[in-house]
């Protein structure tokens, strides 16, 4: 039996574009054999169409387990959630979602998941509607929005520069901890294991960015 961790983040939700906090949460409760992380992928994209999720699916065998830190990291659409869960059940794959501590292999678990997924979808649509109404009211009152506004461009450029600097500093720290492993020609799995051992768990995507691969 293999235990896989699946994580996802969109740039809008996490300025650093990493899923390391999700990995840390999952590893605090489970011994993970492999991690698949979709970065800069919207939750509106169906689970089985996401690049890393597709790679995960190819690795699955009966008896395996997928662990997700939060429900909305895996699914933001009720139909996609329930269809994926049903597909996993048919393949005899266990799905664990940590933030709701739910075992979807039971009828009551499946019922609760249906309700929670429906609420999450409803709330996402409500948020989108409120944002749309806010922009509409603002424009009606003469307020301008968009990248064409100089202040907006400057703000975006400043934040982008700060994100880039923070990322470069983080990558330098990671490679500094891996100097010995890099010199030995260690594999990515060995490097990730070493970082986890010293209390610096990261995703494979972050490692590859740090190594400029």
UniProtKB/TrEMBL annotation:
It comes from the Bacteria. Residues 2-142 form the Resolvase/invertase-type recombinase catalytic domain. Keywords: DNA recombination, DNA-binding. The keyword Metal-binding does not apply. GO terms for molecular function: DNA binding; DNA strand exchange activity. InterPro entries: Resolv_N (IPR006119), Resolvase-like_N_sf (IPR036162), SSR_resolvase (IPR050639). SUPFAM superfamilies: Resolvase-like. SMART domains: Resolvase. This is Recombinase family protein. It comes from Serratia inhibens.
């Amino acid at each position: 039996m293999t235990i896989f961790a699946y994580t996802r983040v969109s740039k809008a939700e996490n300025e650093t574009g990493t899923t390391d906090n999700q990995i840390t949460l999952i590893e605090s409760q489970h011994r993970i054999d492999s991690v698949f992380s979709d970065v800069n992928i919207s939750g509106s994209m169906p689970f089985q169409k996401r690049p890393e999720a597709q790679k995960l699916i190819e690795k699955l065998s009966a008896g395996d387990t997928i662990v997700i830190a939060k429900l909305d990291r895996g699914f933001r659409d009720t139909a996609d959630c329930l269809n994926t869960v049903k597909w996993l059940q048919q393949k005899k794959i266990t799905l664990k979602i940590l933030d709701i501590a739910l075992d979807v292999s039971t009828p009551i678990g499946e019922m609760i998941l249906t309700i929670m997924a429906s609420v999450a979808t409803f709330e996402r649509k409500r948020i989108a509607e409120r944002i749309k109404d806010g922009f509409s009211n603002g424009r009606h009152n003469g307020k301008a929005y968009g990248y064409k506004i100089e202040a907006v461009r400057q703000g975006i450029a400043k934040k982008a520069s700060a994100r880039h600097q923070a990322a470069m500093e983080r990558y330098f720290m990671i490679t500094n901890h891996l100097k010995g492993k890099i010199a030995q020609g260690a594999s990515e799995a060995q490097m990730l294991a070493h970082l986890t051992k010293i209390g610096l768990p990261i995703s494979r995507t972050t490692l590859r960015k740090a190594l400029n691969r």
